[in-house]
Each structure stands twice: as C-alpha cells, then as structure tokens.
Amino acid sequence: MEFPQPTELTIDEPINPVDQSCPRCSADTMYRYRLVDYRGWLEVVKCRSCLHVEDRRPIVAPPQGTP
Ligand SMILES: [Zn+2]
Questions:
Q1: How far is the CA of 46 from the centre of ligand 1 (A)?
Q2: Which of 20, 35, 62, 67 has the fewest CB atoms within 10 Å, counting from its CB?
C-alpha cells in the first residue's frame, strides 16, 4: 500500500511553552508536547536547552493519518 506524499514541510505538532523554569539549567521556559517512545505516547514537560524532563505521563495515542 502506498501513502501520499505529505504536502506540509514540517510536522505540525503543537509545542506549548510552559511558564516554568528548568531546575537543571535555569532556562526560563520549558515546553509541553507529545512524543512517542518504546513505551508508547507520552506527554512531557521538557527543557529544550538541556533536555531535562520535568514531567511525563502516558497518553492515549493520537489518531494517525489524514483527519
Ligand atoms: Zn534545562
């Protein structure tokens, strides 16, 4: 089975700034977003400077494919 070529250039995954400073590197803002790892989908609050993960929780997998 073939899938159509994506038309957008970037993955439109919302990355939400969180008004919380990083306890490790003192960056002003951390970011809440979804990711997937070997355990499945997670929502994380993560520092994008030092990659410290402040919070993570499993979430239901979002729907895949075209809306
Ligand atoms: Zn940090």
A1: 8
A2: 67
> pTM here?
0.71
Task: Confirm whether 66 is domain-assigned.
Answer: yes
Query: Measured in angstroms, how far is the CA atom of residue 50 from the centroid of ligand 1?
Result: 4
Note whether residue 18 is domain-resident: no
Distance 60 CA to ligand 1 centre (A): 27
Taking only the tens place, the pLDDT of each residue in 5-57 is: 767 666 667 899 999 999 999 999 999 999 888 888 999 999 999 999 999 99
How far apart (Å, rounded) are the C-alpha atoms in residues 22 and 30? 6
- Residue-number span of the structural domain to which 56 is assigned: 28-67
Burial class of residue 32, CB neighbours in 10 A (0-12, 13-18, 19+): middle
